[in-house]
Amino acid sequence: TTPQIGLIGLGTMGAALALNIAEKGFPIAVWNRTAQVTQDFHAAAGDLAGRITPTATLADLVAAISPPRSIILMVPAGPAVDEQVAALSALLGPDDLVIDAGNANFHDTNRRNAAGLPFRFMGIGVSGGEEGARHGPAIMAGGASADWARMAPVLQAIAARAEDGTPCADHMGPAGAGHFVKSVHNGIEYADMQMIAEVYGVMRDGLGMDAPAIGTTFARWNEGTLRSYLVEISGIVAQAKDAASGGPLLDVILDAAGQKGTGRWTVIEAQNLAAPIPVIEAAVMARNVSSRVAERAAGEAVFGPGPEPVTGLSTGDLEQALIAGKILCYAQGFAMMSAAGGEFGWALDMPAIARVWRAGCIIRSAMLNDMAEALAEDPGRNLMLAPFFADHLRLSLPALRKVVAAGALHGLSCPALAFGLAWFDAMRTARGTANMIQAQRDFFGLHGFKRLDGLDLPHGPWAKG
Ligand code: 6PG
């Protein structure tokens, strides 16, 4: 059988995705810029090799696929995508479809989509790392409805399945909508990871727990409300032993976090939309701070070590603080997506997004089931106001306050948890403090203000004339 699907880019993710597609019964032609990579991939494909057609050139790839062709790009985001799109422009026709499955910036996807390409174009966000790509990722698709309809049988077949059996692949909206939702996913991924790192720090430096004990704690949390992939793997990594030192592996890993930019894009976009996502902002900030290794050492040399032992705090408090932080983070993320939907004219479906994130992706968690339900009740309502989550917050906020306060008093940096709490306190305060800002703005710039009594007196006594 001649393939109707092709895939370009046999790196870790591309290779895993191609095997997944072949395994689900779809013949596929593959091509990698380095011919040896293509050959090695095919040679290692085992039982699936018969459904995979290795090709030596881009033209061979196109020739090996019967029209209308669907070609998945799995190359690094950025110029490599533009290069492939340009090369394919000479080879494909108007019924062919190119699907960028990398972590593209959604503005790039919008730009490519609007560029009058000689073929159809989609951008899909694929989450779940190598394991997900191989056995079931979460897929956030952006593009024309007709193109989604064309690809849905394949994408839903290869996607992860939620506990209720629904495939975690859905159409988010036109053009860049899929990559936009994927970048918010990654922003939340950064935030979930950061909050876990913060409570890890409190356990290590505040409570004096060793890595195996911390790992056991995470493993226990993974049995409850916090059940999630990231808490699960945090338990596993904290328990891992290092062959070289004989001690915990975590203790020998440099504390400088890498990043490829998706979290930063989310924060920049949130700023453009004036949609506050402070937990994610704190997470990106913390990664940037973490990479300043020498400066942090210089800071410690001048001010002395920061973290001090903490008393009166239990791991139960940390578990509850993490629950609260997580709810606040997701409330911000979904509110940002609502703002983006309005701004970009996309009908982003909040419950559908929560449902797609239930399995396969890095942020998958038990709580996303409840979030999907709460958002379905009222998609426009801030998640923290949904009765289910409001109840959870009432229970967990005292612990969040305790942890943030202990961090502040004892030099344990917990920016994501602290920003979440500050956002919450602002968002539940009807009479805030921006009256002061408005008066200041009027004082130095005569910017005017509205009054609570409705009188039309927009300036203070400093206004002349
Ligand atoms: C996923 C991940 C994946 C990848 C990111 C992480 O959903 O599967 O988000 O896309 O791990 O590249 O990004 P950083 O390198 O920025 O941490």
From TrEMBL:
<dbReference type="Pfam" id="PF00393">
    <property type="entry name" value="6PGD"/>
</dbReference>
<feature type="binding site" description="in other chain">
    <location>
        <position position="287"/>
    </location>
    <ligand>
        <name>substrate</name>
    </ligand>
</feature>
<comment type="pathway">
    <text>Carbohydrate degradation; pentose phosphate pathway; D-ribulose 5-phosphate from D-glucose 6-phosphate (oxidative stage): step 3/3.</text>
</comment>
<comment type="function">
    <text>Catalyzes the oxidative decarboxylation of 6-phosphogluconate to ribulose 5-phosphate and CO(2), with concomitant reduction of NADP to NADPH.</text>
</comment>
<keyword id="KW-0560">Oxidoreductase</keyword>
<feature type="binding site" description="in other chain">
    <location>
        <begin position="185"/>
        <end position="186"/>
    </location>
    <ligand>
        <name>substrate</name>
    </ligand>
</feature>
<dbReference type="InterPro" id="IPR006114">
    <property type="entry name" value="6PGDH_C"/>
</dbReference>
<feature type="binding site">
    <location>
        <position position="441"/>
    </location>
    <ligand>
        <name>substrate</name>
    </ligand>
</feature>
<dbReference type="InterPro" id="IPR006183">
    <property type="entry name" value="Pgluconate_DH"/>
</dbReference>
<feature type="binding site">
    <location>
        <begin position="9"/>
        <end position="14"/>
    </location>
    <ligand>
        <name>NADP(+)</name>
    </ligand>
</feature>
<dbReference type="Pfam" id="PF03446">
    <property type="entry name" value="NAD_binding_2"/>
</dbReference>
<dbReference type="GO" id="GO:0004616">
    <property type="term" value="F:phosphogluconate dehydrogenase (decarboxylating) activity"/>
</dbReference>
<feature type="binding site" description="in other chain">
    <location>
        <position position="190"/>
    </location>
    <ligand>
        <name>substrate</name>
    </ligand>
</feature>
<dbReference type="InterPro" id="IPR006113">
    <property type="entry name" value="6PGDH_Gnd/GntZ"/>
</dbReference>
<feature type="binding site">
    <location>
        <position position="447"/>
    </location>
    <ligand>
        <name>substrate</name>
    </ligand>
</feature>
<dbReference type="InterPro" id="IPR013328">
    <property type="entry name" value="6PGD_dom2"/>
</dbReference>
<dbReference type="InterPro" id="IPR006115">
    <property type="entry name" value="6PGDH_NADP-bd"/>
</dbReference>
<feature type="domain" description="6-phosphogluconate dehydrogenase C-terminal">
    <location>
        <begin position="178"/>
        <end position="463"/>
    </location>
</feature>
<feature type="binding site">
    <location>
        <begin position="75"/>
        <end position="77"/>
    </location>
    <ligand>
        <name>NADP(+)</name>
    </ligand>
</feature>
<keyword id="KW-0311">Gluconate utilization</keyword>
<feature type="binding site">
    <location>
        <begin position="32"/>
        <end position="34"/>
    </location>
    <ligand>
        <name>NADP(+)</name>
    </ligand>
</feature>
<dbReference type="GO" id="GO:0019521">
    <property type="term" value="P:D-gluconate metabolic process"/>
</dbReference>
<dbReference type="GO" id="GO:0050661">
    <property type="term" value="F:NADP binding"/>
</dbReference>
<dbReference type="InterPro" id="IPR008927">
    <property type="entry name" value="6-PGluconate_DH-like_C_sf"/>
</dbReference>
<feature type="active site" description="Proton acceptor">
    <location>
        <position position="182"/>
    </location>
</feature>
<feature type="binding site" description="in other chain">
    <location>
        <begin position="127"/>
        <end position="129"/>
    </location>
    <ligand>
        <name>substrate</name>
    </ligand>
</feature>
<feature type="binding site" description="in other chain">
    <location>
        <position position="260"/>
    </location>
    <ligand>
        <name>substrate</name>
    </ligand>
</feature>
<keyword id="KW-0521">NADP</keyword>
<protein>
    <recommendedName>
        <fullName>6-phosphogluconate dehydrogenase, decarboxylating</fullName>
        <ecNumber>1.1.1.44</ecNumber>
    </recommendedName>
</protein>
<comment type="subunit">
    <text>Homodimer.</text>
</comment>
<feature type="binding site" description="in other chain">
    <location>
        <position position="103"/>
    </location>
    <ligand>
        <name>substrate</name>
    </ligand>
</feature>
<feature type="binding site">
    <location>
        <position position="103"/>
    </location>
    <ligand>
        <name>NADP(+)</name>
    </ligand>
</feature>
<keyword id="KW-0570">Pentose shunt</keyword>
<dbReference type="InterPro" id="IPR036291">
    <property type="entry name" value="NAD(P)-bd_dom_sf"/>
</dbReference>
<dbReference type="GO" id="GO:0006098">
    <property type="term" value="P:pentose-phosphate shunt"/>
</dbReference>
<dbReference type="InterPro" id="IPR006184">
    <property type="entry name" value="6PGdom_BS"/>
</dbReference>
<feature type="active site" description="Proton donor">
    <location>
        <position position="189"/>
    </location>
</feature>
<comment type="similarity">
    <text>Belongs to the 6-phosphogluconate dehydrogenase family.</text>
</comment>
